[in-house]
Amino acid sequence: MGIEYLYSELTNDKLIQVFLCAIGIGMAKTGLGGLGLLVVPIMAGVFGAKSSTGFLLIILILADIFGVAYYHRHADIQKLIKLIPSTIVGILFGVLIGNYIDENQFRIVLVSIILLGVALSLYKSEKVSSLDLKRKFIPNLIGFLGGFSTMIGNAAGPVMTIYFLSIGFKKNKFIGTAAWFFLFVNVFKVPFHIIVWKTIDISIFFFGLSLLPFIIFGAYAGFWIVQKIPEKPYRVFLITSIFLSTLKLIVLV
Q: Which terminus of the chain has fewer Cβ atoms in its 10 Å neighbourhood, N or C?
């Protein structure tokens, strides 16, 4: 199945959805993080719940590179080191679960993960901030949930957003730390998508690569918009954009 076949199989309206998703991911990875979750159900509707994770992963990695290149200086590496071991465990658990469930069951798990993220967002940030998030088990739990949700549906955004905001990350530190986190986990996931799930092959890789102009446009739009948003409204934007993803869930279920 070549890249020409992939393009020929998509109707014009689906192609437009894919192009807009690529722009949205570019914007998400350069600071407008909540847009990434809006993309997940749209891509699932175009390619199927499980198959879409492979298509989406290629686009995400390309966009992650832009986020890291621009915001890498602001990352909190110590926080990342604490999260990575449990994140890897979560990814491996996601690989196992995803390999033994059918498309409909995968869809249910994907929707459940997104709804969990929305539920976390509804939990007022002041209440989350009042928890003792420095306890060792909290980063381990967050890492596991982030790893599992990113493997199942590239949908770790809500969990990581709520955690990073709740431990007091300001705008640039939030974007920089999230950029490094997602670049690591997304690259780590690639072999499992190729070998175990078989959701990535050479044609899917080149299809994702062909969307690079849209990703670049989104990335630079994200850079520009984020600079214009003050700190407090930026936090409100992140939470609100997560809520909006529930609208597309009606189509998924």
A: C
